[in-house]
Amino acid sequence: MATKQEAVEAKQGLSYDVTNGVAVITVDQPGAPVNTLSPEVGTAFTTLLQQAERDPEVKAVVFISGKKDNFVAGANIDFLQTLKTPAEVEAISRGAHEQFDRLESFSKPVVAAIHGACLGGGLEWVLACHYRIVTDSPKSVVGLPETQLGLIPGAGGTQRLPALIGAQAALDLILTGKNVKPSKAKKLGIVDEVVPVPMLKDIALKRAAELAAGTLKVERAHQGFKAVAQSGKKKGLAGLFQGLLSKDLWAEAALEDNPVGRKVLFDQAKKALLKKTRGKYPAQEKALQVIRVGLESGRKAGLEAEAKAFGELVFTDVSRRLVEIFFATTALKKENGTANASVKPREVKKVGVLGGGLMGGGIAYVAGVLQGVPVRVKDRDDAGAGRALKQVQTVLDERVKRRSLTHREANAKLSNITAGTDYSGFKSVDLIIEAVFEDLKLKHQVIAEVEAVTGENTIFASNTSSLPIGELAKGSKRPSQVIGMHYFSPVHKMPLLEIITHPGTAEWVTATCVDVGKKQGKTVIVVNDGPGFYTSRILAPYMNEAAYLLAEGADIVQLDKALVDFGFPVGPITLLDEVGIDVAQKVGPIMEAAFGKRMAAPKALEGVVSDGRLGRKTNKGFYLYENGKKKEVDPQVYLLLPHGKDRKSLDASEMAERVALQMVNEAIRCLGEGILRSPRDGDVGAIFGLGFPPFLGGPFRYADALGPANLLRKLEHYQDKYGERFTPAPLLVEKVRAGKGFHEA
């Protein structure tokens, strides 16, 4: 009969076994796809360590996961949400410190055998072990992503990682929250060895025995920065905040080793950090502060600072919003995009792409390289087909340069993609993704051509950003298999895929396209049909309002800065140059025809287009460009705008509010009209597709934070001042009358 303690260990998914004098502690939490860290798991693990310590036959310990492709994914976020006060969170953090301190000082060697994701609390756990081995699987990554949730590592990570690999590398990982692959983890010194998957346990047992016998010595400069394992035989990410600190900042790595140099280092780091985050993300500032405390005052002081900061951050609005986004995207990963959860996607073995332009080439990359299926690209001429292949080659070359792929691997992936000027190779295609010019007649022609050469079950997906999918389906013999798959540029970098269904789209078609999007690494939302769908529709009034401000005499730089200070990654005028001023001009009439005068763009920009200023692609828009890089505003562009060079100094906060509220109000209209299926999808779509500030949680979380009544008052104020384009969405008025927020049941 199992003891009470054995029952606790089993509940937490921990088991204990001894092999040739090495205790193997396996974590495999029952009923969960991944292992997570909680106080109960930590306590159960400590109890098993004590058992190993008491057993005279046990000379060393191996810590391993029983999951197929996961080690420990991090702390249990659901558990953190149950805590009520900062003091409770601090206590949890201090408890983790005590448990991992005991692990670090354990009398027998402990080897961590890592396969799969080892993130957050999982990495903090293994940092306290004495030797770390990771498999060479693409599933294996390590990292401390807490800042992406508005938090910092709370189980000693802010202290152990800098001690192990140095402040420079540790800050880069902690402030960005990015993951690193096994080879990079070894190079940094986070792990000691990278091994093939099938050999993980055997090598871990061997290394544990060698450590216990003293035949394996581990030498670590920086207490681990350049770890060298010596024995009989030697073995050899967006996160959102990438590029926070420039490499130049760390040119003098020795600065961190003396007090004066350290002060310079951290002062410069904070300045660079604030320039990037504009003070909107407190977790990054806290991480910098806590790491500095540890380096200057010792680990004990650093751990205390970490616990206090961790407790404070859990209850910040920023963390709440970022955690909500995390839960939203996690939920989307489990959905098939339809109301019927039993609908299964069909297998897509081959993808056809129509159009070899910027979007077509990007789609070919995510399908052929990330999804990993054969792709056939068709363009109208050899030059277009060649451009598509060249674009894929360019992205692969970047990956080779970053050493995330070898030349051989890149060539193998490129061979998955072929291109031509006819429909040869399309007969066996399961999914066609069309990325041709935005013209309904042309798209109807393409649909007819495709249906003549493909099988009866082939799906036709359009990458259109504005034309209604229902109108496209009218040109098809199989309208139930017509759907929208709206990618964002650049396709290989932008995380969102917006799938658009018309009333006749078959559920299996939707489920199949959602599955394809996930395999391409995208966060997928499904929206209903309508002009502009969701993202293009809410972007239109946002951009229009920026244009109205230009027409009123706003300075271009000040206007862009106002929206960046609000939290957008780039200002609206910079974005207009990126998208292409001519593209925006073509979309404008479509939106105005669908929604009337409130969506009408000001005429002020017509002179800019007629002057040949199309944006970055012509090296001249509102800004000037050199070798593809943005320079300064072209002063001559003001001569093409009302007021000429006589710019007005408009209030920055009002400019930002006018532009942002246009997007928020239109998002509410989309929800009220049934374009959106939920406020959650609207928040995810705006953040991942359009760069709506993540710390605000999306348009609907932002509306709830402002308060619907307050938002209504603001819109009515601007409506009185500027007219019908600020008319509040009917659903907003309903919510105010009902006294409810958008995320309330």
From TrEMBL:
EC nos: 4.2.1.17
Domain 3-hydroxyacyl-CoA dehydrogenase C-terminal: 532-625, 656-740
Entry coiled-coil feature ranges: none
Keywords: Fatty acid metabolism, Lipid degradation, Lipid metabolism, Lyase, Multifunctional enzyme, NAD, Oxidoreductase
Broad EC category: lyase
Pathway: Lipid metabolism; fatty acid beta-oxidation
InterPro entries xref list: 3-OHacyl-CoA_DH_NAD-bd (IPR006176), 3HC_DH_C (IPR006108), 6-PGluconate_DH-like_C_sf (IPR008927), ClpP/crotonase-like_dom_sf (IPR029045), Enoyl-CoA_hyd/isom_CS (IPR018376), Enoyl-CoA_hydra/iso (IPR001753), FA_oxidation_alpha_subunit (IPR050136), NAD(P)-bd_dom_sf (IPR036291)
Residues covered by the 3-hydroxyacyl-CoA dehydrogenase NAD binding domain: 350-529
PROSITE patterns: ENOYL_COA_HYDRATASE
The keyword Secreted belongs to this UniProt entry's keyword annotation: no
Family: Belongs to the enoyl-CoA hydratase/isomerase family.
NCBIfam families (UniProt xref): PRK11154.1
Designated name of the protein: enoyl-CoA hydratase
Species this protein is from: Corallococcus caeni
Taxonomic classification: Bacteria, Pseudomonadati, Myxococcota, Myxococcia, Myxococcales
Gene for this chain: fadJ
